[in-house]
Each structure stands twice: as structure tokens, then as C-alpha cells.
Amino acid sequence: MKGDDVPDYIDPHELEQKKIFLILASPGMIRQRNSDVIREISALGYHTVVITTNFPYSVLSKMYAQCSIPPDSVSFIDAVTRNSVGTAENIPGVVRYINNPANLTDMGIAVTEVLKEHSGQKVCIMYDSVSTMLIYLSSANISKFIHFVTNKLRLMDVSGVFLAVEKGLDPMLMTQLTTFVDNVVDTG
């Protein structure tokens, strides 16, 4: 454990080397792992861009505040809010909304644009959660998208974290994901 009881899910040296991680958690712990990983990455001096298909930006920002995560160390691509309430205005530098989690084109564009906004900074992308995407998309489409994102991160020299519920992915998708990432961490 690091100071302030921050768990060691991410190896700091691997993060510096721009590695990509798949973090697995039990269904009851996925929300906690989200906060744990953000706290850990923030403590290492990174700005994290959270692509959320699981919780709205408004929920995550409150959750992070309760965990003493500095708000300026995180920005969001929110694929949940507009799908649920219809409208939401982007807040530059804080949150960019896309219409729904199934719109992978808009999600990919948003990732590219947000990464450009943070060019020159220590940035890590965190995708929460791969498991939730199964509600909206087939395993094959999710696999293609994750492959696209991991290649984009590697080409842009950016670290990445994908959160997923352990045993919540079909075996073929899990096999493909493990080939796309550098390190799989099963946190229970």
C-alpha cells in the first residue's frame, strides 16, 4: 500500500512505460475499484480521462470528491447521461457528453479530441466499464472498439485502464481483451 491507503493495482513503472491494464473486480466491488484506481493514478501525478458507460459524470464526480480525489486531476467522456436524460451541455476541460454507449464512432472521436487537449501532460485513459458495454453492443463490436482504443493509446503514447467485472465477460471476449492489454489485474 502507498501512503493514504491507496491500493497498488497499477505498477507505477508500467504506467510510466505507457502500459495498458485490464482491471477485473467482483460485481460488488467495481465501483470501489473505479475510485481506487483513480486515486492511485492521481497520486502518481497523472490526469485521468474517464470514459464512463457505467455511471453518469455527476455521480462519479461526487464519488471522487468523497474519496478526496482532486477534481482537476480527472475529466470525463460521459456516455450515460444523454442516453438517460436526453440533453446535457459539455463543460470544457471537465466533461464531454456523447449520445449513448453504443455510439462507438462518437466515443472514438471524443477520446482523440480529449487526448489532444491534454497533449504534453501525463495522461491515463480509464474505461469504465467493459462489462456495461455488453448491454448495448455485441462482444465482437466491443472487442473491435477496445482493439481500436488500445492501438490509439499506443500510437499516442498514453497509458490506459479498462475496468470489467470478473467472470462478466464471455470467454472469447476475455481472451481477446487479454491479448490487447499489457497486464491483467484480478482484484477480486
Which characteristics define this entry?
188 residues; alpha/beta; Rossmann fold; seven-stranded parallel beta sheet; 8 helices
Report on the architecture of this protein.
With 188 residues, the protein is an alpha/beta fold. It has one domain (3-186): 3-Layer(aba) Sandwich (Rossmann fold), CATH 3.40.50.300. It is built from eight helices and seven strands. It has helices spanning 12-16, 30-43, 57-66, 81-85, 104-117, 130-133, 139-156, 171-180; strands at residues 20-25, 47-52, 74-78, 95-97, 123-128, 159-165, 183-186. Strands 4-3-2-5-6-1-7 form a seven-stranded parallel β-sheet, sandwiched between helices. α5 packs parallel to α7 (139-156) and α7 runs parallel beside α8 (171-180). The longest helix is centred in the C-terminal third of the chain and has 18 residues, at 139-156.
Question: Can you summarize this structure?
Answer:
The protein is an alpha/beta fold. Helix content is 43%, strand content 20%.
